[in-house]
Amino acid sequence: MDGPLAGPFKTLEELAQNACELMTSQPGASNGAYGFEYCALHYYSASGGGFFLSYLSNIAGDKAGGTKYCEMPQALRDPEHGDALLLGSDHTHPYPRGFSKKDLSSKARWTPVRFVDPVTRQIRERDMMVFFRERTGTCKAYNFNNATRVITALRDGQWIAIGKADDEGDVQMFEGKGWFQ
Asked: How much is the pTM?
């Protein structure tokens, strides 16, 4: 997948909010049962000054039973940022809000789930973001950490832990937390 479509952003939170707006405003991205999924990658480049979003995958459709899908890119091409670190994948859901069981199953894990940034020597963890636009127009961003299996929601510019997924993709919400709060 080529990049960047958007960025640089100083923080992952800033990237998530902007990616949510950009991706859910695509044709059909918020059309419920008649909608489409869009996929992209997010990455970091020290030389580029922050976080970036790749271009969107152009392969999408419906599977038997009405399940929506998009083809997740497996590689990144960004000649301007040779130091790009691929951090994770992103996709929209036309319905329902949040992650699907398939998104969260251990079979969908992007390995390695942890790796060392060769420049900063910082340990990084791969994640997956999903974006959903409410009927009110509000964009919701959720993040799933592949290493810790914790699900967070972007609320007022901060990631808030709302639940944890087991290896089968079942979610246990934390007390007082959920997709809506």
From this structure: 0.92
Amino acid at 23: M
CATH of the domain at 105: 3.40.140
76/118 Cα distance (integer angstroms): 17
- The reply to whether 178 falls in a domain is no
Helices (H), 70-135: 101-104
Cα-based distances in Å from 107 to 70, 92, 102, 111, 175: 17, 20, 8, 10, 27
Residue numbers of the domain that contains 99: 6-173
Length reported for the chain: 181
The DSSP 8-state label assigned to residue 136 in this structure reads T
68-119 pLDDT per residue, tens: 667 788 889 999 999 999 999 999 988 778 888 889 998 888 889 999 988 8
